[in-house]
Amino acid sequence: MLTDLDNLNLPDDYIYVTKNRKKFKKASGGIVVIYRKSLEKELNFYNTESQFVLWFKISKSILSLNSDVIFGCVYVPPENSKYSTIEAFEELENELNILTNTENCYVALVGDFNSKTGSLPDYIIPDESVVSMFDLDCDADILDYLYDYENLTRNKITLQRVSQCTCRPNKYGHRLLELCRKNNLYIANSRVGSDKDIGEKTCNDSSVVDYLIISSMLFPLIFYFEIADFIPLYSDCHSFINFRLQATFSKSDSIVINNRNDKTFVRWKSEQKSEYVDRIHNDPEGILTTVMNKLDELSVNNDATQNDINNIVLDISKNFKDAAAETFGKINKHKHFYKHENSKPWFNRKCSMSRKKFIKLERDIVF
To answer: What SUPFAM superfamilies would the database entry show (predicted)?
Structure first.
C-alpha cells in the first residue's frame, strides 16, 4: 500500500501522481497515475477532496478534439467492506459536475467501480410525446442533451451492451448507471475492440466491475481495447483494462472527428410527415431529376466509379435535408434561448435555464 512518504522507482522519463486514502490510520491503498515526462505540459492534475477519484485534464491539442478531456481514475471500495460508502458515487458526480461546469470538455472515467451493471442500459431514449408536450424540441442545447446517445449509432457503436457476468446488478451498479444516464456517459466495455459483443469478466473470472466510461464523442478515438488475461503480478483478482486513444503531437498527424454542424434541424414531427414527403416529391431544385439522369447515364455506360456513387448519395441527402429545413425549420445550435410561439409571456431565459437543470436532475423520473 502506498503512503504519501513512499517513492516509486520508475525509469527517468516517467512521472507519477498519487491520491491515497487517509480515512484510516493504517495505509489502505489509493490511486496512482504514471505518465511520460514528454506529456507533462499536456496534462493538468486537479486537487479535489474525494479520495475515490484522481482527476486530470488531457489537452485537446494531442487528441485533435475541439475540447479538452477530463479524465477520472476511480477506485470505489467493495460493498460491505469497512471502506465502502454509497456516498462515493455522490462525491464522484459532484466533482464531475464542478469540473465540467467550469470547463467545456469531454469526460472519461476508468477504474474499479465495484459496480455490477449486467447488461442494463446506460442511456435513456426520451419519450417523444413528452419532448413535444414541453416544447423541448425548440431548444438546441436540450435536444443535444436528450439525444446525445445518437452519437453512438452515428459512429457505428451499438447501444445494447452485453456481459458475461451473470451476477444480479448491485446497488453500486444501479448508482453507476444513474450517473451515466444523467451525464451522457457510456460504458465502453462490450462495445469496442476485442471485447465488442463479448463483455468479458474483469474480476475473479465471475463478474464485471471494472470499466472504461466515456463521452459519446470519444468513441472514435479508441483504436484498441481489451480485457487482459489475469496476471497476479498486477492484482489479487482483477484483469486490467488495456485501451489506447489516438493521439498526435503534430498537425500533420491529426485525425478528424466528425462534429455536428453549427445548424441543427428541429427534430422530426409526426404531424408534419405528409408535408415533408410532399416537399421531397416537389423537388424545386430538380435534384431527383438530375439523380435519375445520372443513374440512367451510368447504367448505359456501365462505368460507375465510387466517386459517382458518392455524389449521387450526396445529392439525395441534400434533397432530404432541404425538405427537412423547409418543413421543420432549423435553429442555431449555439442559441441558448428560443421562445416558442406558444410559450407563456413570463417564460424567459432564466426559466429556460431552470428547466434544463430540472430535466437533468429528474431525468430518470421524467423519462
So the answer is: DNase I-like
Residue type, 86: I
The pTM of the full predicted model, rounded to 2 decimals, is: 0.71
Residue in the block written with cell 434544463: 356
Give me the DSSP letters along 262-274: SEEEPPP-GGGHH
Per-residue pLDDT tens digits for 308-345: 888 888 888 888 888 888 887 765 554 445 555 556 66
User: Using CA atoms, how far apart are residues 124 and 364, in angstroms rounded to an integer?
Assistant: 8
The pLDDT of residue 269 is: 73
Secondary structure of the chain: what % helix, strand, coil (to 5)?
Answer: 40, 20, 45
Distance in angstroms (rounded) separating the CA atoms of residues 105 and 95: 14
Q: How far is CA 147 from CA 19, 136, 303, 367, in A?
A: 36, 11, 41, 13
Three state DSSP letters for 59-88:
CHHHHCCCCEEEEEEEECCCCCCCCCCCHH
Alpha-carbon dihedral 221, 46, 228, 173, rounded to 10 degrees: -100
- Measured over the CA atoms of residue 85, residue 241, residue 235 and residue 49, the dihedral's sign is negative
Per-block mean pLDDT, blocks of 10 residues, the chain (367 long): 66 90 61 93 94 95 91 92 84 94 90 96 89 73 89 94 94 96 97 96 92 96 94 86 82 42 58 84 84 84 80 85 79 50 62 67 54
Please identify which residue in the block is written with the cell numbers 435535408.
321
Helix runs in 204-339, H state only: 273-282, 287-301, 306-328
What's the burial of 71, exposed, middle or buried (CB within 10 Å: 0-12/13-18/19+)?
A: buried
